[in-house]
Amino acid sequence: MSAVAGNFPVVTFGFGRRATGRGAGRGRSVQIRALRLRRRGDNSAVTDEEVREPSHATGAAALGQGWSHRHRDVSGGWLRPTVFGAVDGLVTNASLIAGVGGGGVSPHAVVLTGVAALVAGAFSMGTGEYISVTNQNELVQAEVALERKMHARFPAAEQAELAEYFQGYGADRDTAVRMAAAVSRDPGTALRVHTREELGVDPAELPSPVVAGAASLVAFSLGALIPLLPYLFGLHVLLAALGITAVALLAGGMTVGRLTGRPVLRSGLRQLALGGVAVGITYLVGSLIGRHGM
Question: Could you tell me where the beta strands, DSSP code E, fall in 7-66?
């Protein structure tokens, strides 16, 4: 956990090991240069930039071998609602079109059903995502407010708790106590360290409800539009809609696999298989109802 940078021992640790929320595992490293505190004096504090600054040693070593030490945004601010919205729109509307198409309705009814589902689903997804993220942020802010009160009423106990965290990351007791004292001189930094450790989130980096809602709405609309395209362009063939849906599912899964570093073909086939099950079951149900006039 520790290394020597110049004349100063560096203790590097990552937050979020207890995290269960959206901000878990943000991938940041926190470095506290313990012995540098002696040169600063008792009235100084660790700056926010030092808390957020990545490891120069690791970064230089990685670059020297052709690697990047930068991390993708894994906080879920836009990627999760975008992927979820696009896949949901694609599978939902493809399944719906397969169901009504299998039931033997007219092409006009298929288009009407698909467009209605696109509009209703997009606004439902966008609104739901906005409310969900807003509620989660409000819950985090309430917990942060509680933690802030604890810092104000029991500063010594909170500082001792910080020292325990640092010891848990490999610092010896004396170094951990000095680190906790240094961090505690800045109430804002101390609060961020505590909330990252206890809640698994950074209160300064909460996801935007507007971004999440808009991403979900737009992604659902685009996904739901794909199976409608053949009908909108005059090709009233259900097989064409299902074919373009299969290509989109495969391509979308492969794109997500590339973004996440997973095997590209495997990710694409997995998404195609799951979407195919939903479409197949809905088509079967629609066909049975249409055939028996239920």
Answer: 8-14, 29-33
